[in-house]
Amino acid sequence: MQGVLYVSHGSRVSEAAAEAMGCIASVKADVAVGLQEICFLELASPSVEQGIERLVCQGASRIAIVPVLLLSAGHYYKDIPDKVAVAEKQYPFITFTYGQPLGVQDRFIDVLTERIAETQISIGPATKILLVGRGSRNPQTKKDIEMIGNKLQRVLQTAHVEVCYLAACGPSFDEKLQSSLEANYANLIVVPYLWFTGILMRSIDRTISELVKPNRSVVLCQQLGDHPVMKQALKERVYESFEMAEAITM
Fold it and tell me: Which fold has domain 106-220?
């Protein structure tokens, strides 16, 4: 019997865990599989181990591991496979398959432009857009964010789009925010390339509060969140995961 395990990152912020759970629950309701569980890599429960155990106890003979991640980085290449490798030894009679993160998709650029449009700010040559990624030591993550930034630039045309990161690689968000403030753009919009709210969204908001003077206005867009496009993309990844290679050797 087929089972599905959604693996989300986890957060100390209850609002973030609730947002992730709500988004995934909506996808679960639209996936024609009887056995589905949600778990978290860290900072929230149930854990990956508990999620797998629940599916096994319900009679799953195949478990599709679906990473609820935007891009491929350490969690995808190491953390999740390490946990599943342990489960494979514990449950040798279970077949595990491993899905992919959402990756870079043009339709996500449409979600970003919607988030920007929600600010009701007129976009033009005097507008600076800071696209903020989580950041990773994995070089592919930086390439992906830069590709997203380039795609966003082509869509917005007249605005100036720059990419920055919250951790692990540069340029940092703090640096780019400061230099953008000094450049004195008429409009400065911060666009987080984050799926759900949480510590990182709070960090962005705090940095804006610390660096921006009262006479300047910097607008922070909403995260990607449970937009229908994001849910549709996750649903597609679920069905694709059933056909992925069985061995999880990253």
Answer: Rossmann fold (3.40.50)
Strands (E), 112-248: 127-133, 160-165, 187-192, 218-220
Q: Where are the beta strands (DSSP E) in the chain?
A: 2-8, 35-40, 62-67, 95-98, 127-133, 160-165, 187-192, 218-220
Residue range 12-32: mean pLDDT, rounded: 90
Q: Contact, 144 vs 71, CB < 8 A?
A: yes
Q: Tokens 């951790």 map to which residue?
A: 167
Highest CATH level, class, for 2-102+227-241: alpha beta
Q: Tell me the per-residue pLDDT of 84-138, one tens digit each, with 9 for 90 and over.
A: 999 999 999 999 999 999 999 999 999 999 999 999 998 999 999 999 999 888 8
The 8-class DSSP code of residue 77 comes to I
Which of 68, 57, 67 lies closest to 94, judged by CA? Answer: 57
Does 106-220 match 2-102+227-241 at the fold level?
yes
The pLDDT of 138-143, averaged and rounded, is: 89
φ, ψ of residue 211 in degrees (nearest 5): -95, -25
Instruction: Report residue 17's pLDDT band, with 50, 70 and 90 as the boundaries.
Output: confident
